[in-house]
Amino acid sequence: MNVAIILAGGSGNRVGGETPKQFLQVAGKQVIEHSIDAFENNALIDEICIVTRADYIQEVETLVARNRYKKVKKVLNGGKERYESSMAALGAYPDDKTNLLFHDAVRPLVSDKIITACIEALQHYNAVTVAARTTDTILSVNSRECIEFIPAREALRNAQTPQCFKAKIIRTAYERAQADKDFTTTDDCGTVKRYLPEEPIYVVPGDSYNIKLTYKEDLLLLEQLFRLRNQSSNQ
To answer: What is the chain's alpha carbon radius of gyration, rounded to the nearest angstrom?
Structure first.
């Protein structure tokens, strides 16, 4: 079974305002609705689980009913940290053979092509992520804010989501992480890479549309990208 886990527990402080960024309006809908649409409309996705803040569970349940989403089966209370939301989803899916696709709710333009490519890659790998080629030169600086070295751009990628796993793999990684008193992570792939270093993580090519809403100005960019995508699909 292929299950999309929509992670919608963030506060979005960098966007500004009191409303979490996943619930802001863009291109006629809330950001989270666009993300749910992408997985609802993918033929290979069997079920959707949304993990959100306790104070927004009712709002999520309302938008699920309003949109008549058929694949959304669970709405869960997440944690303060991203990994806590991932672990909440793991607890809801005990079958180790389930494919879990963890996606940031604030990446509303993830394409059907990317989702399908991730699921197909899970036929050959236990861990799969999405990343786009880095177009800028990346600088590594020291504590004095001086350049330490410049890594080769050809090998660099900008991480995106979904990040996808056989449930057994991501569950094992988090079990090991919980036993580590120094555990810190920013995403699920980082946890697998650290605690299951022998497990290869395949990279599906991302695209420039699959951006993350982080800052207020990103809302304008998303509006433009939605408009461009709609124009392309109508040609």
So the answer is: 18
SS3 of residue 129 by DSSP: strand
The model's pLDDT over 9-53, given as tens digits with 9 standing for 90+, comes to 876 665 657 899 999 999 999 999 999 999 999 999 999 999 999
Q: For the chain, how far is it from start to end, CA to CA, in angstroms?
A: 35
Residue-range definition of the domain harbouring residue 83: 2-229
Quote the number of domains for the chain. Answer: 1
Cα separation of 25 and 63, whole Å?
13
Residue of 89, 109, 108 lying closest to 99 (CA atoms)? 89
Question: pTM for this structure?
Answer: 0.94
- Report residue 23 as tokens: 């619930």
Token readout for 50 is 């949304």
Residue 120 falls within a domain, yes or no?
Answer: yes
The Cα 210–Cα 225 span in angstroms is: 10
Task: Write out pLDDT tens, residues 111-166.
Answer: 999 999 999 999 999 999 999 999 999 999 999 999 999 999 999 999 999 999 99
